[in-house]
Please model this.
Amino acid sequence: MQVLITVSFFSLWELFSYFEIINSFIFSSPSRIIRTIYDLHISGNLWHHIWITLKAILISFTIGSLIGFALAVLFYTLPTLKKIFDPFLTVFNSLPKISLGPLLIIWLGANMQTIIVMSLLINTIVTLITIYNGLINTDPYKIKLFKTFKASNYQTLTKLVIPHNKEAIITSLKLNISMSLIGVIMGEFLASRAGIGHLILYGTHVFNLTLVMTGIILIMIISFILYQAITFLENKTK
Model:
């Protein structure tokens, strides 16, 4: 059914464009997108742009996951610390990260660092909140059982709480990979000379909407592959 829906969508898109039911200049068409991807490949730019974006996603995903997990464990073990920082986290999470873009460019320059930091601003808080909510919802009777057998806080954390929330951690990784991609593309809109976000921005400037649509399709493909990779990891850990 998923394949059927996908094939039907692109087939109808191509037919509507071919018969001019929709404006092919504005909405492009799958055949034009495939031709653009082929031209980028022939020119040697396709894989360069994909790698730049993919590298930034993987770096920000890894760092954001580690920081978010560490903070979640820290807040779980020190509830008072969580209460102190909770309003600050709420305010920061609600802040449109794109508004910090000009400051990041001034502080760090228009480079890969700015793109990664922009992505971290988006994915770290989501990872922290998802994992923390899982930790605090650990079965209290199991925790009481561990304490009955005089288990230390460290033993309870490492032998019960963290393993018990494996699903919450995997869920946070799924959200993190999506947020990382969003953050990287936003960063590339602001400060990049290469990458898929740069392709989309360049296509917009020269009014090449087929190039814009090509960038969007490439993002969707990368997102699907990365999500499937996390799903594969989830299946392996069951």
Observations:
- The first helix runs from residue 2 to 18.
